[in-house]
Design goal:
alpha/beta, Beta-carbonic Anhydrase, Chain A, 5-stranded mixed β-sheet, 8 helices, 5 strands
């Protein structure tokens, strides 16, 4: 129930963001001082590194509100999972949002022929199982979010015994709106553990 309330608040703040030309934060100095003693974020956000997708601004959140993990293509890796594990077990977070977006450059790159450096290839290979013939870049990006969500859920029992709510969301660069996704991920041919956590 509490996780649903948190998600509802974030979506309401996002609606305000999408309709506003100005964002103001109150009590920044007070918050800065408060959080020198610890952090109690509302939610983990696993987001793309794209500079057009800043989670704090999109959700109108301030210092200490969100535990943000950013990586191109919002894909899981050992480091991403370890960071989330820390937030869940040591900062008390019980909400995880995997946030994708329209016109994702990482997804677009994954849809191109494989001529990348070994580092880029390793990242893009975590997106490529979602690609099916005829899909648009945004359809692949949505499927990728759903795939990462299901993978995270499968890994949860190995990192915590807590009840953690994991949801996928998708940000529209043009409208500024975040929508929660219904998980309708197309069947992935490779095991999620192989695709996402073997490094």
């Amino acid at each position: 129930m509490e996780q649903n309330i948190i998600m509802g608040e974030l979506l309401q703040k996002n609606k305000e963001f999408s309709q506003s030309n100005k964002i103001e934060f109150d009590n920044l100095l007070e918050l800065k001082d408060k959080h020198t003693k610890g952090q109690w974020p509302k939610s983990i956000v696993i987001a793309c590194s794209d500079s057009r997708v800043p989670p704090e601004l999109i959700f109108k959140q301030s210092i200490g509100d969100l535990f943000i993990i950013r990586v191109a293509g919002n894909v899981l890796s050992n480091d991403v999972i370890a960071s989330a594990e820390y937030a869940i077990n040591h900062a008390g977070v019980e909400q995880v949002i995997v946030l994708g977006h329209t016109s994702c450059g990482a997804v677009g790159a994954a849809m191109q022929p494989d001529n990348d450096s070994p580092f880029v290839k390793k990242l893009l290979d975590k997106i490529r199982p979602c690609i099916k013939e005829g899909m648009t870049i945004d359809e692949v990006a949505i499927d990728n979010v759903n795939h990462q969500v299901e993978s995270f859920k499968n890994l949860l029992p190995s990192i915590t015994t807590k009840a953690v709510n994991v949801v996928g969301a998708f940000y529209d660069l043009e409208s500024g709106i975040v929508e929660v996704l219904e998980n309708k991920s197309k069947e992935i041919s490779e095991p999620v553990e192989k695709v996402l956590v073997t490094e």
